[in-house]
Amino acid sequence: MAFAIREGFAQMNRMTYIGITLFALATGLTPMIAAAQAATPASSAPASSASSADPASPDAEDAATEPADGSKPPLAGLAKSLKADGINLRSGIIDQYAHNTTGGIYQGHTNVGQFNIGADFDLDKMIGLTGGSFHFTVYRDYGESLNKFVTGTFTKQQYIYKNEFYRWHLGLFAYEQKLLDDKLDITAGRLGTTTYYGHLVTNCQFESADTCGEPRILVSEAGFSLLPSATWGLNVKYKPTAHTYIESGVFEVNPTTSASNGLDFSIANATGITVPVEWAWAKTDPATTRYPFELKVGAFVSTAPLTDPYFNTAGRSKALYGGTALTVNSSRDGVYIMGDRVIWRPNDASAQSFNIFGGIVQQLDEAEIMRQQVYTGFVWTSPFAALPKDTLNFSISEFELTPREREFLRDARIKKGGHGSNALHQTAFELTYGWHVTRGLELMPSVQYIVHPDNSSITNTKIFPKNMFAFGLSLRWDIGNMLGFERTAGGD
Question: Where is pLDDT greater, at 287 or 26?
Fold first, then answer.
């Protein structure tokens, strides 16, 4: 009886949480349709970084972070000259420290980071090829991930952990062609799927990987490739109107790229393809829209085989009886909806804004670790008037484990002499503050709390994970922008 009551309350809390997320989406969507969403007169004031139309657009951000004495970045003249010739240089580093104080599998701390350097070439300015451009980026990962070696969770406490092989990787290496007055954008080459799909401008105001740069399930369970481990891909984006687009592509799935230096362009080790599609409606320019918003709906299918979380090839528990994991040859697929909207700006000339976001990702197959993610939160830009680029940010993400993953974790625990089944749902909370120290440099302290954490990243243990509390500090240094080049796009 007591168990049934607890389960009833848990289900009620879950439905309440999902209701809040849907309400957040509805709150953002309804005014979009209303006449009140009509464009407002342009304003010359700087916009909220959480509402920028293009994360790579430098103008408003750069203007807002120029030194008060009017001095220019040290290479501003060179950057301007190179841009006139069609060349933009990029470089940056993201470093993230995290410490788990209680709960999870173990307690401890790690530091992880990634350095990148690259360039963009405007081929129209360079050789007269209208609408053509070429992009490349080289990456270097370093450090250890807290979730992989300490907490054991499926969720990552540091989003920048992308690759366990610490070497130089050629990641992005692609040609881009814009046609039909830039309505059609085609990119082909060595790409990361996550660069294009499942993004909201609000979602990288956090240190964890719950939503940055896209929901965690899309990164790990959709067959998406992510930089620096680029694969062959073709992406096509078409804008039927000024504020809508439809986007789709075909991307190679190749599990060997993460361990390579990125220079092996062979498809001999490819195991399948991933085909995502996304439709979006967005008005993200605060100079023309009083309350910027985004609404995105997407789906994906991946043909690459995957391993069953529970069964071995004999159809028995691989945790209890060992053996090779059963290969599942059916496609992995899913759908998602997400959106954000600024619901408060004191006036058109203010940098202050309050942006709410939310989304749901649903896996349609069972051979996964998680099958659903529901998330919501807010980004409050300029909580202090004297700091117009700072942000105060809060997010909640709930994950639902698949039945087979729960059974596997239970059996693995029994095998080691422990007991207990992981909860069906786990909920991750995060609070951060983004301090824009100067042009190109941001520090972000973070506190994270997870209720009913899983241990899908550390399974060979008898420990049953308890609720965990972690804190961290993220440094994002856009070296190129600090020196005077264009601001680099946000994380993927």
Answer: 287
